[in-house]
Amino acid sequence: MQDSIRVGIAGLGTVGSGVAKILLSNAHLINSRCNRKIELTAVSSRSKSKQRGFPLKKIHWEENLINLARRDDIDIFVELIGGEGNPAKEAIEVALNHGKHVVTANKALLAKHGHQLAKLAESKGLSLKFEAAVAGGIPAIKTLNESLAGNKINRLMGVMNGTCNYILTRMENANLSYEKVFKQAKDLGYVEADPTLDVGGIDAGHKLAILSSIAFGTEIDFDSVYLQGIESITIQDIYQAKELGYRIKLLGVSQKTDNGLEQRMQPCLVPANSAIGQLENAMNMVIYEGDNSGPITLSGAGAGEGPTASSVLSDIIDLARDNKVPTFGKPVTELVKAIPTSRPAPGAYYVRTKLKDSPGVLAKMATALGDHGISIDRMRQTQHEDVAAPVVIVTHKTLPETLSNALTAVAKTGVILEDPVVIRIEDIQ
Ligand SMILES: NC(=O)c1ccc[n+]([C@@H]2O[C@H](COP(=O)([O-])OP(=O)(O)OC[C@H]3O[C@@H](n4cnc5c(N)ncnc54)[C@H](OP(=O)(O)O)[C@@H]3O)[C@@H](O)[C@H]2O)c1
Fold first, then answer.
1. Domain co-membership, 50 together with 153
2. Are residues 353 and 298 in the same domain?
3. Domain interval for residue 410
């Protein structure tokens, strides 16, 4: 056996304690798989007296995580405190400057500072690893960075926030409003302290930006991810989508277009019988479309102690095995700046609105759309409400700005009684 490799964990919350527990309970199995002993030598967290579910007696305790990051008796610094800035960022920098490899699950920090931290790590011949930062227990990074390294990625997609998927599936299955299900999700502890991180699509956007960098060889560019949350999705839209054979998901899509890199995280209609359409509750799914591999679909738990700690362990085990892979798939100095697309690829759209209930209004709407080159795939008129006629339209592929201009033109004809709800329909198998 080689010399042991020594680990220090900063943050003993859900994930940090989970990692420590696996390191202790599966020690024999893991050590034999690495042909090397992995030792948990030191930890740091805010409260020393909290019960963590594993014995702390034989492990050094550091009051300050910066001191942990520079200890001589650790080779790998595992950052599991979270937060997009300091002290997590400073601790990682200190660890790298003291010759330690770093493992983190912190997508917010990576989306903001990942490029700079990878530069520092690679300039020192060290690794910065983050399997747990995207889609919890799913090996989303390893699959892209290693298994699919021989492929050009044409498109990547995914449902990457379990809370949003839980809310959307529960709304449909229990016939409840967004507000009611949001409250239930909060009571169950599924929602971050700042809910906009989840329901506003920010957390999932961070993950999409990280995957895009690896897939397309570009510097992480979270700022150009088009973000739209699920707060305005109504039970009505969920049911209309169902009637049309779709389900609504908070879907991330990233692809290279002729105009540049397109990254969007937004509610989309997807075919109900597709793998993503069938994804229930808090599960996550990632799909990579490689030019040689074809579509590769991965699904699993996107969060939680066991799944997330399992991914952290896979990074620690890689380091113990000396399996070195560049942080974002190629040396960080070779990543190019992302050029964000000025216009997303054309797509079909779902439009729901209320029209005046009088003769000729549907024709007026169809004409205004047609004048903008938008053809209608399907149109449904639902139950009349007094003077209003609710309609749902599915368009053929068009650009979002063209649709927006067309709907403005329809509004000018005076037939629209309610602002249209517009949701993209994503072309997936
Ligand atoms: N939970 C998940 O399912 C999941 C999934 C994927 C990724 N992640 C990521 O994993 C990371 C950790 O998440 P978590 O859910 O484990 O968080 P958590 O349960 O809130 O744990 C955070 C831990 O950090 C410690 N901490 C906070 N500030 C500290 C400081 N200044 N110095 C030392 N320790 C400090 C806390 O200490 P005390 O306990 O002593 O108060 C706590 O143990 C985050 O980046 C998160 O985004 C989590």
1. no
2. no
3. 348-425
Tokens for 18? 């989970």
How far is Cα 133 from Cα 141, in angstroms, rounded to an integer?
9
- State the pLDDT confidence band at 133, using cuts at 50, 70 and 90: very high
Which residue type is seen at 37? K
Q: Residue 358's domain is classified under what CATH number?
A: 3.30.70.260
* Percentage of residues in the chain having pLDDT higher than 90: 91
Q: Return d(Cα 113, Cα 399) in angstroms, integer.
A: 33
> 199-208 pLDDT, tens per residue?
999 999 999 9
Q: Residue 160, SS3?
A: coil
- Dihedral Cα 111, 116, 118, 119, nearest 10 deg: 160
Report the nearest atom of ligand 1 relative to the CA of 46. 40
Q: Rounded distance, CA 270 to CA 292, Å? A: 24
> Is ligand 1 within 6 A of the CB of residue 265?
no
CB 395 within 8 A of CB 374: yes
Tokens of 103: 């493992």
Name the band, by pLDDT with cuts 50, 70 and 90, for residue 1.
Answer: low
| Residue burial 342-366, b: 16+ Cβ < 10 Å; e: rest | eebbebbbbbbbbbbbeeebbebbb
CA 51–ligand 1 middle distance (angstroms): 15
Q: Same domain, yes or no, for 162 and 284?
A: yes
Among 17, 46, 90, 188, residue to substitute to test ligand 1 (most atoms within 8 Å of Cβ)? 46
- H helix and E strand count, the chain: 14, 16
Residue 205: both structure tokens together: 């956007």
294-301 and 5-10 beta bridge pairing? unpaired
Rg of the Cα atoms in the chain:
24
Which amino acid, 298?
A: L
Query: Tens digits of per-residue pLDDT, 302-357?
Result: 999 999 999 999 999 999 999 999 999 999 999 999 999 988 899 999 999 999 98
